[in-house]
Amino acid sequence: MTVSARLLPHHLRHATLAALATTALALSLGACDTAKEETGKDEQTSDALHYVALGDSYASMGTRGAPHTGPGWCARASDNYPSQLQQMKGLALDDVTCQGALTDHVLGPRADLPPQLDAVHTTTDIITLSIGGNDAGFGVLTSCAMNTSDLNCAELHGGEIDQALAALPAKLDDVYAGIHRKAPQAKIFATAYMPLLAATDNESNCPAIEKVSDVDRLWLMQKISQINLEVEQAAHRAGAQFIVPPATELHTGCAPVAERWVDLAGTETGAYPMHPTHEGQSAMAHAIAERL
């Protein structure tokens, strides 16, 4: 998921550009990590459960300043939820998550990267999956969270988002079919997209969204909820478990800094803009760990 800085309001634009500049440095350093070149693979004892993390930036990203593994543009942080889960449970982790990933990139190649599913084997024990958001236009939704144009996002993008959502179930079913072919015995956990905003967030308690219309705020929340519903229903159809930490509505980008599980500009938490914070990734890791 990518965020266009030109769509941000002036009071956040410079802060976000500064954050992204810091991100670029961190990612360039992460790309130089020769120990884990293509996957975030940790050396474990031979009896450790094999865990593969699949998906997009909601799984790959964490703190911008944390060490990164794999290709720099994947933004695969060492404090993302796969890494935190691995540390909690002593798992043998192959982390192939990558920002911007679509369902097609789980099943097929992306640029010079092999299909993410190549990391999965018949002996794989645990799989986590964060996918579907980019297929459903999550990048448009995050841009709309900071929209300042006269026309609201529901009018501009409602049709394309609804079309993308209608196509999402079949794409998710294809991903699960591919996983089941390769690892029929693996436990699969599909992770939610934690909401950027909640119904209680408004300009009085969150100046960052003061120029976003009430209509757009409601539309944004509804569409993220719809994405999560499709992800949840696809998981249930496939016999996977859907994971969402409790009380996410209390930990949006408008919550007190220390309580944010996602952030908007990311400047106060060190997170990537419009993505989970370290604390948010920790909450997700704990929620998965409770189901293992």
Structure description:
The chain has 292 residues and is α/β, with parallel strands linked by helices. It has helices at 10-30, 57-60, 81-89, 103-107, 138-144, 153-182, 214-237, 278-289, and strands spanning 50-55, 68-69, 76-77, 92-95, 126-130, 187-191, 241-243. A hairpin with a 6-residue loop joins strand 2 and strand 3. A 5-stranded parallel sheet has the order 4-1-5-6-7, sandwiched between helices. The protein is globular and about 55 Å long. It has a single domain (5-289), classed as SGNH hydrolase (Rossmann fold). Helices cover 38% and strands 9% of the residues. It has 8 helices and 7 strands.
Topology summary:
Elements: H1 10-30, E1 50-55, H2 57-60, E2 68-69, E3 76-77, H3 81-89, E4 92-95, H4 103-107, E5 126-130, H5 138-144, H6 153-182, E6 187-191, H7 214-237, E7 241-243, H8 278-289
Parallel strand pairs: 1-4, 1-5, 5-6, 6-7
Antiparallel strand pairs: 2-3
> H/E order of the elements?
HEHEEHEHEHHEHEH
CATH class: Alpha Beta
Per CATH, the superfamily is: SGNH hydrolase
Number of helical segments with 4 or more residues: 8
**Structural class category:** alpha/beta
End-to-end CA span: 28 Å
Keywords: Disulfide bond, Hydrolase, Signal
Pfam families: Lipase_GDSL_2
GO molecular function: hydrolase activity, acting on ester bonds
Protein name: SGNH/GDSL hydrolase family protein
Features of the shown structure:
38% helix, single chain, Rossmann fold, disordered N terminus, alpha/beta, 292 residues, 5-stranded parallel β-sheet
